[in-house]
Amino acid sequence: MRRTSKQHPGPDGGERVLILSAGVGSGHNSAAAAVEQACAGRPDVAEVEVLDVLQASTSLYRDVLGKGYFVLVEETPWLVEWGYDLSDAPFRRRGPLDPWTRANAMPVVSAIKRFKPTAIICTHFLPAQLLASLILRGAVDARTAVVTTDYDFQGLWLTSAFHALFLAREEGRVQLTALGLPPDRVVASGIPIAAQPSGPAERDPAAPPMLLISAGASGGDYALAVVRQTLHLRSPFTATIVCGRNEALRRSVEDLIAPGDDRYTVLGFTDEMPQLLRRADLFIGKPGGLSASECMAAGLPMVLVNPIPGQEVRNGDYLMEQGAAVRCNTATTIGWKIDGILGEPGRLARMQAAARRVGRPDAARDVVGRLLDGPARPFVVTRAAQKTIFDASARRVVASELEGESALVRLVDPAASSTVALLRAGELDDLQHRYTGPDGTLLLRRDDAVLSVRRDTQRLLRAVLGRDEELAVRVEGLADLESAGPS
Q1: What range(s) does the Diacylglycerol glucosyltransferase N-terminal domain occupy (predicted)?
Q2: Where do runs of H (alpha helix) occur along 87-153?
Q3: Is 44 within a domain?
Q4: pLDDT (tens digit per residue) in 332-359
Q5: Containing structural domain, residue 270
Q6: Report field, pTM of the whole predicted structure over 0.70
Q7: What burial letters (b/e) apply to 251-280, b meaning 16+ CB within 10 Å?
């Protein structure tokens, strides 16, 4: 998938925004489309291009990462959960891209060079990891954002260089600042979704509650199980069942429903989901990050069925914690759970209010605005700092509270009031020895004696300086900052 749109070219050319996604499921590309839509609302954006990095790679790479993932979900979900937990450790992966990924990334690198973006937004961790390596090599001169697409932060999204990291909720921001990442680079924006219809939700309080049953991206037997359970509900209701492009499922649902039962409406693929979400009273389906965010923005609570182990289970945990969802762990209790919600006075209204509190309908606009109006210099985490964070996490120690040589420190650009680097205290000694001026100022500069500078220091200087010859920075110790409390 690649598409380019002209926006509002100004006298200076305007911003050129490249959005990189990956078609593993539909959520990442849906988030990319939402960000593209948000760019259209800014007069300073001249051109936008959206690129699915899997579509630009080889068919083998695409099948392994795309189709292979869903095969594992269906056949060995325990393995998916194991892999999710294993890769959740922050900075578990610290080295360069593996040769296979690097080879498949070449078309994406070519696309970046051709488009010459001033800003790059990643809605999948694969292009985010590629961009970090390009920033450290000095091969990208653009503001870069990493935009997560699930409510729980997962360690694969954490890269060594970026301008802004956008998370779904505040708990993720607290988690990452405890690791040592600076609050000025981590934003709890919500998950980008398409612009929602204006005005209040279109629910008719006099009509029976409307259930919206979604088969999800791949459909499945669970959708039939949901419909079968609704046939035995004691509470009055109507139901709209969205089967997507799964015609076999649509026929099976229609066969299951008694002819002439006007409580049910069965749909295939539809582009009217935003309107359906606003008319429905209760959603039954999987808690994907994008679908859950769309429900929350519409004030639509969820009955969660068949979540994918890992991210969808954690999405569900958060929604249940907020009071905006319930989960069915077996197909035999779905009807009982729905009846419990519809039959208890005030319960559905309370869940709808909780969903509205969780909803972040303006997340896409916030992502674009915070990135384009944010710091021009990237933020870099050195490999030594990454290893420190990983080791501390393995020992269940808060990295920002470490002391001595293992302590983490930040370098801050005082002119822009932005953090530009996170490193170990031991690395700071080397920088101060080489770059401290007569007045005691730490002045980072291009070093002609490249061979005498450690490779990690070379990457740091190259990324942080950009086109400048030097940069005065301030050193801040994390332990002192945390003890001082919020400013």
Answers
A1: 28-193
A2: 99-104, 106-115, 125-136
A3: yes
A4: 899 999 999 999 999 999 999 999 999 9
A5: 210-358
A6: yes
A7: ebbeeebeeeeebbebeeeeeebbebbbbb
